[in-house]
Automatic annotation (TrEMBL):
<dbReference type="GO" id="GO:0016787">
    <property type="term" value="F:hydrolase activity"/>
</dbReference>
<dbReference type="Pfam" id="PF12697">
    <property type="entry name" value="Abhydrolase_6"/>
</dbReference>
<keyword id="KW-0378">Hydrolase</keyword>
<feature type="domain" description="AB hydrolase-1">
    <location>
        <begin position="9"/>
        <end position="237"/>
    </location>
</feature>
<dbReference type="InterPro" id="IPR000073">
    <property type="entry name" value="AB_hydrolase_1"/>
</dbReference>
<protein>
    <submittedName>
        <fullName>Alpha/beta hydrolase</fullName>
    </submittedName>
</protein>
<dbReference type="InterPro" id="IPR029058">
    <property type="entry name" value="AB_hydrolase_fold"/>
</dbReference>
């Protein structure tokens, strides 16, 4: 049985994967949601202030997930959203994972993150917890940038359920590309990059540029755009279509169900 690991991204809690997890399990896949060692600010502190805290926050985060993935008996399929999508790319670049899917992914070094992503970092509310500076988006920012094109009444419960705090240093350094360099030195698995046509956090043009950059690798690299979808395409109406296209792609690339 093939195993899928969903990787936590930025701003949003791991519960964002619950619909995908149920859907993939119903289709015969074993699933795990990889997240911080404990939830919230304490989890971020443990990962980013460990023994390797001298490295960039993004590298510390990728190392954390690499250790978890190395513990599987067989290489899993990696699926990530936003920052999680960038982590999938960096793990594949290390030769980890059977295949990878990066959804509305933040880009690696040498690909511009785009105006929307930078604006969200600069305008988010700064809070100090666990001796670190965290960013938290307001409900208005969530409705305008993340939950778009959904309606405010339908997005309000999602804000309370999904939105968390994210380390300021992680977001800034990742936007600058620090710790996000692809080396293209390892033979990696197939990669699918997915964009949302109405994404106000990670523009589809950013994901497309990311796709062209990833084509430097000799490994299979594909791109699928979903017009009319926003950044939350993994939970908003139509998410089943996104999940089914991923399953179809996996069957094509790996040759089994």
């Amino acid at each position: 049985m093939s195993h899928i690991c969903f990787i936590q991204g930025d701003w949003l809690n791991p519960t964002v994967w619950e619909k995908f997890e149920r859907h993939f399990k119903a289709c015969g896949y074993a699933c795990s949601i990889l997240s911080l060692p404990v939830s919230g600010e304490q989890g971020w502190h443990q990962v980013l202030h460990g023994k390797d805290a001298r490295f960039s926050p993004l590298k510390c985060l990728v190392d954390f997930y690499a250790i978890q993935i190395a513990g599987f008996s067989t290489p899993p399929i990696l699926i990530g959203h936003a920052m999680g999508g960038l982590i999938v790319q960096l793990l594949l670049d290390r030769g980890l994972g059977l295949a990878g899917v990066a959804i509305a992914s933040r880009p690696p070094q040498r690909v511009s993150p785009g105006f929307h992503s930078i604006l969200q970092i600069l305008t988010a509310r700064v809070e100090r917890r666990q001796g670190m500076r965290f960013l938290r988006m307001t409900p208005a920012q969530f409705f305008c940038r993340v939950a778009y094109p959904g309606s405010r009444p339908s997005a309000a419960p999602l804000y309370e359920q999904l939105v968390g705090r994210v380390p300021q240093t992680l977001m800034i350094t990742a936007a600058l590309g620090v710790g996000g360099r692809l080396l293209f030195t390892q033979e990696r698995g197939p990669l699918l990059l997915i964009s949302a046509g109405d994404d106000r956090m990670v523009a589809s043009s950013v994901v497309l540029a990311n796709y062209f950059y990833q084509r430097r690798s000799l490994a299979p690299t594909d791109y699928i755009a979903f017009p009319g979808h926003g950044h939350l395409l993994i939970v908003q109406p139509g998410w089943e279509c996104v999940a089914d296209r991923i399953i179809e792609w996996l069957q094509q690339q790996l040759g089994w169900f």
